[in-house]
Amino acid sequence: MLNGTVMVDVRNLTDHKVSYEIPELNIKRSFNIGETKKLQVKEVKALFNIDGGEILVKDFLSVQNEELLDELFYKPEAEYYWTKQDIEDVLLRGTVARLQDALEFAPEGIVEYIKSMAVSLQINDMAKRQAIQDATGFNINNAISLANLPDDDAVEETLVSSVGQRRVPVDVTN
């Protein structure tokens, strides 16, 4: 059994900030995208035992200590330890089958990261786009189309610059 003061690495799995509060330890903590922090074992155990804390540890934060995970009776899948680079690799160079396994077995934070990175990388593989949609219901094609729309300022500037100018020539030979 690990001593409560032992430090373990805990990493944010997601593409967004993750925060929690443990009132009995007077702790408020936030993790930025991909950030790793060293936390005491007693804090991780306390987090695991508060309302919603187990979900944070299993789906959104990655505890980088197998002995502690064993003490918490949690045996994560391989994708629990994935980094941004692993996600990029499966999207750009991995097989469709590997992506499907990740979408089925990865923690929710990794699945969300896969979806957002597929859009930002604008993956070309239509089979991978379809696999993501089949597994999550998230339409990568539509998301990429929306991401490529001009921003509101550009549209407004185009409209303003064309005010007072004819768009179609007028025939005045009547």
Summarize the structure.
The chain is of the alpha+beta class. Helix content is 49%, strand content 14%.
Write the layout of secondary structure elements.
Blueprint: E1 7-12, E2 18-22, E3 27-31, E4 36-40, H1 41-49, H2 53-60, E5 61-63, H3 66-71, H4 84-92, H5 96-105, H6 108-121, H7 126-136, H8 140-147, H9 152-162
Antiparallel strand pairs: 1-4, 1-5, 2-3
Helix pairs in contact: 1-2, 4-6, 5-7, 6-8
Tally the helices.
9
Uncertain spans, ≥5 residues at pLDDT below 50?
Answer: none
How would you classify the helix and strand content by structural class? alpha+beta
Question: Average pLDDT, to the nearest integer?
Answer: 91
- Along the chain, the helix and strand elements come as EEEEHHEHHHHHHH
Helix content: 40-55%
Question: How would a crystallographer describe the biggest sheet?
Answer: 3 strands, antiparallel
Please tell me about this protein's structure.
24% of the residues are buried. By secondary structure, this protein is of the alpha+beta class. 49% of the residues lie in helices and 14% in strands. It folds into two domains: 7-76, no CATH class; 80-147, no CATH class. Strand 2 and strand 3 form a beta hairpin. It is elongated. The protein has helices spanning 41-49, 53-60, 66-71, 84-92, 96-105, 108-121, 126-136, 140-147, 152-162; strands at 7-12, 18-22, 27-31, 36-40, 61-63. The model has no long low-confidence stretch (mean pLDDT 91). Helix 1 crosses helix 2 (53-60) and helix 5 runs parallel beside helix 7. The strands form two sheets. A three-stranded antiparallel beta sheet has the order 4-1-5. The longest helix has 14 residues, at 108-121.
